[in-house]
């Protein structure tokens, strides 16, 4: 019963209830095809007045698409213990006619992203192997208890971290509550032209792995990400994380998490941005309360950073997030979320005379229809 609460709360926030609403198109002789999706609209506003490159940007209210998507799940029973499966999911912009560029009212490109596309084999005896484009196993196993917000509010690593494309992964079967995972993403240099003959191949493989344990309402997880730089575009340092969550009853669950990264001293000495290469320690504490058709999330984070650079948005901070969700029906829900990232103000422009506010509260309100 207690495990059901945590799963239900996460599903309510992330729209994972789409799985329950999926329509079975075909199911015969062990072969099954489901179609699912959601159309989501909202109004968003606030947040920092600067982007990831410290360029000034307006943060006024806007009518937005809230991660609408369409997906297919496929499976075939090879034997009583082995199932072959496939999964593909697309994102589309549901709030306007353009496909993603907003540059032309005659752009009907439709889908804006292939969000998931992978195949694999699943066995209760030998575990699961899959390959393609999918969410980071680290997120699914370690930071998932905190990934309960529709948009902003997760200060730990999310689904793209050294994942999403050209990846393979393995998850062990459930061993009395224990499961281990290992994933690798390949960054290839095939087809690129070296600057000179004989130059070393700069292909890279970034791995991540860990273990989780579940028993009734208790969930523990520990993992790492080899956040390689170079073609992988990471920090060049290992990221380590651990989370614990517990469902006290059918209405209330709490979560605690920690994540850390070391300094990449070589890149910092060469003039690299502190936000990209400096170390940090992040603590998170949160809770979910569900009652009837309502669900509520509340989380607070303390982020302590090395090599502080507040002028470029890299400083110690305390962030928090709140979310409320109401299910009008099994297919339709409404939501409201707040996020205060506590980002420092930064200087904008070559003269350093303009200041962009990083402390504006972000808000999102809207509704979703699942099918």
From TrEMBL:
<dbReference type="InterPro" id="IPR050298">
    <property type="entry name" value="Gram-neg_bact_OMP"/>
</dbReference>
<feature type="signal peptide">
    <location>
        <begin position="1"/>
        <end position="22"/>
    </location>
</feature>
<keyword id="KW-0472">Membrane</keyword>
<feature type="domain" description="Porin">
    <location>
        <begin position="8"/>
        <end position="338"/>
    </location>
</feature>
<keyword id="KW-0813">Transport</keyword>
<keyword id="KW-0812">Transmembrane</keyword>
<keyword id="KW-0626">Porin</keyword>
<dbReference type="InterPro" id="IPR033900">
    <property type="entry name" value="Gram_neg_porin_domain"/>
</dbReference>
<dbReference type="InterPro" id="IPR023614">
    <property type="entry name" value="Porin_dom_sf"/>
</dbReference>
<keyword id="KW-1134">Transmembrane beta strand</keyword>
<keyword id="KW-0732">Signal</keyword>
<dbReference type="Pfam" id="PF13609">
    <property type="entry name" value="Porin_4"/>
</dbReference>
<keyword id="KW-0998">Cell outer membrane</keyword>
<protein>
    <submittedName>
        <fullName>Porin</fullName>
    </submittedName>
</protein>
<keyword id="KW-0406">Ion transport</keyword>
<comment type="subunit">
    <text>Homotrimer.</text>
</comment>
């Amino acid at each position: 019963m207690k495990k059901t609460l945590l799963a239900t709360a996460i599903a309510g926030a992330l729209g994972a209830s789409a799985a329950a609403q999926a329509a079975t198109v075909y199911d015969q002789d062990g072969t099954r095809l489901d179609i699912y999706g959601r159309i989501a609209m909202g109004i968003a506003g606030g947040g920092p007045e600067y982007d990831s490159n410290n360029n000034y940007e307006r943060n006024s209210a806007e009518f937005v698409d809230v991660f609408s998507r369409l997906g297919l799940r496929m499976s075939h029973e090879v034997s009583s213990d082995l199932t072959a499966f496939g999964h593909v999911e697309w994102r589309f912009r549901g709030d306007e006619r353009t496909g993603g560029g907003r540059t032309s009212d005659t752009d009907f490109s439709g889908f804006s992203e292939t969000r998931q596309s992978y195949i694999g084999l699943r066995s209760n005896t030998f575990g699961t192997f899959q390959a393609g484009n999918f969410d980071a196993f680290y997120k699914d196993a370690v930071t998932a208890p905190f990934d309960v917000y529709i948009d902003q509010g997760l200060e730990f690593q999310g689904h793209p971290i050294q994942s999403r494309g050209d990846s393979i992964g393995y998850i062990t079967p459930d061993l009395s509550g224990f499961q281990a995972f290992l994933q690798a993403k390949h960054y290839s240099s095939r087809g690129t032209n070296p600057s000179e003959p004989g130059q070393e191949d700069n292909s890279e493989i970034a791995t991540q792995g860990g273990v989780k344990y579940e028993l009734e309402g208790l969930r523990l997880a520990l993992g790492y990400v080899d956040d390689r730089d170079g073609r992988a575009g990471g920090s060049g340092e290992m990221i380590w994380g651990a989370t614990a969550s517990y469902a006290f009853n059918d209405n209330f669950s709490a979560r605690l998490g920690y994540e850390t990264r070391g300094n990449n001293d070589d890149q910092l000495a060469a003039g690299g941005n502190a936000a990209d290469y400096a170390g940090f320690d992040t603590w998170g504490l949160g809770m979910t309360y569900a009652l009837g058709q309502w669900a509520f999330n509340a989380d607070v984070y303390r982020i302590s950073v090395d090599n502080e650079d507040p002028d470029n948005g890299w400083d110690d901070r305390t962030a928090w997030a709140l979310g409320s969700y109401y299910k009008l029906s099994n297919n339709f829900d409404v939501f409201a979320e707040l996020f205060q990232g506590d980002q420092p103000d930064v200087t904008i422009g070559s003269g350093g005379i303009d200041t962009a506010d990083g402390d504006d509260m972000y808000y999102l309100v809207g509704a979703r229809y699942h099918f």
